[in-house]
Structure formats: C-alpha cells, structure tokens
Amino acid sequence: MKPQTPSIPPSDASARKSIAPVICYPTDTLPRPDLESYRAVRSALSLVSTTHVPPRDAASFHVPQGHFFRIICPQGPQVGDLNLFNANDILERFYSGKTRALNGTHVGLGDQLFSNFPNMRPIATITHDTLDWYGFDEFGGSVHDVIGTRCDPYTHNLLSHGGQYHACCHSNLTRALADAAGTALHEAEPHVHDVLNVFMCTGFTRDTGQYFMKASPVRQGDYLEFFAEIDLLGVLSACPGGDCSSEHSSDAATCYPLLVEVYKPESLPKGWVPPQPNGYDRTHGR
After folding, report:
1. Confidence of residue 3 (pLDDT cuts 50, 70, 90)
2. Helix, strand or coil for residue 16?
3. Do 224 and 129 contact (CB within 8 A), yes or no?
4. What mean pLDDT comes out for the span 108-112?
5. Of 91, 147, 220, 283, whose CB has the highest number of CB atoms within 10 Å?
6. Which residues touch 183 (CB under 8 Å, ≥6 apart)?
7. CA 162 to CA 145: how far, in whole Å?
8. What digits encode the pLDDT tens for the residues 19-53?
9. What kind and span of H or E run contains 236?
10. Domain map of the chain by residue range?
11. Quick one: which of 143, 160, 89, 166 has its CA closest to 121?
C-alpha cells in the first residue's frame, strides 16, 4: 500500500481536481494508413515462413518490407512479448512509449507501431485482430498493451530478495536476439526494449493506479496481424506467465507455444509508399 498523504487539502482542491483533461498529442494531423487498401490485398497471401516459439522461450523471425505477419495462438491461452527492429539497423527499434502516446494504452486494428528517435516513423501497421471484440472491460482492462515493460530477472531479483530466474521475457528476448544477431548476450541485451504485450489483458487499478493483469481472453486460433512497413527483425517471447491470470516469471503457470507466420501479398496496397525517416532536421536549436 502507498502511504497516505499527510498534507492538508487546500480550500480549492475540488476545483483543481475537476479541471477537464487535455489530450497531450492530438492526432488530427497524424498521417493515417489507408486501412482499406491494406485489407484489400489480404485475400491473396502466400505463406513464406513459419516460426515456432516454445513456451517460456523466445524465437526470432524476419519480415520483408511489404509482407504481412501474424502472431498466432496455436494451442492454449498464451501471451507474448514482442520486440521489433529495423532488420538492416537494429539501432532503430519499436518505441512503445511514443506508440502509446499516439495510440493509447492498448493497440488494435489500424494502429501503427512507431520506431525510436531519430527515425521515428511507422514500422508496422495492425491489419487484423481477432480479439478486437474485447474492447475495455469493467475493470478498465484491454488487450495488446504498450504499458508493460516485460517481465525481467532484475525486478524478479528485487522483489524476491535475490532470486534468480532465467525464463522471463527479458532473458528470453536477449538470448533470441543474441542468436539472431550473432553476438554475445551482453552485446544483445542493451537492444532489448519495452514490448508490445500481445494478447495480454491489462490496465490500471482505479484506486491506486497500479498496473494489473488478468486472464487473457485469447483462445486457440486467435491472431494479431501486421503489415511490415520496413524490413523487420522480430523477436517474440512466450511469457512464463502463460495467460497471465495469476503470476509471471514463474514455472508454476501453464504455458503454451506461439506461432509466427509471414505472408507475401500478390501486390502491395494501392498507393502505399515506404515510410521515410522522420523529417526533423536534428539541429536542436543550434
């Protein structure tokens, strides 16, 4: 529990708290993808690769620019932690914080995932989501969040007073990225970043504002589909929390594999052009 505040509310406390919020980043001028043009080419897709992600482990996959990829739940309910990189330069990677600021706490159909500075451009577009029916539940929970960071051995060590756990998503992603990049673990680890929590059902408690998780609604056959705006290297961990109904970073939860399928369309979406790096001149006022 957080300690109770010892301060005395000012006389105008209610007035201050009742001020209406303002959206930090109005998106009226944000370029939006022509979703119908993306969806029009989904009827003619050819499977080009399949990647199996074992329970409590991670695997990497490549998606060429202009291809689709699907993260699939092939067996029981399972959530996944996703990292995305520019396949030609892993210094450019998915930026969950800015994606959250522009799209909201959870992403879905039509939302785009943005990369980090200085490129800051859309690198993937969500083109289909079989869980789009879920919306937000009575607890404020929803699926596919960009608020959680990933379960990791450092927080586990802190909360368990010295415990060592190596099947958490951070470690899984580190091993898989090291294998994909042909580097040592200590070289790969700094590139592992905050994730898209695929299928995970999360939110913030209304009383304390704490990040919560609950049993994912994902079931066998559900999938989240993306269009690769650039050449992508993906790394996906099948979280040791399984459906995250009770705990993560644990060997007690029932876990299942995940599947990644990459598809090539017969043609590119009408009018689609590859996103260019951000146009800011980087002079920073000097």
Report:
1. confident
2. helix
3. yes
4. 97
5. 147
6. 177
7. 29
8. 999 999 999 999 999 999 999 999 999 999 999 99
9. strand 232-238
10. 33-265
11. 89
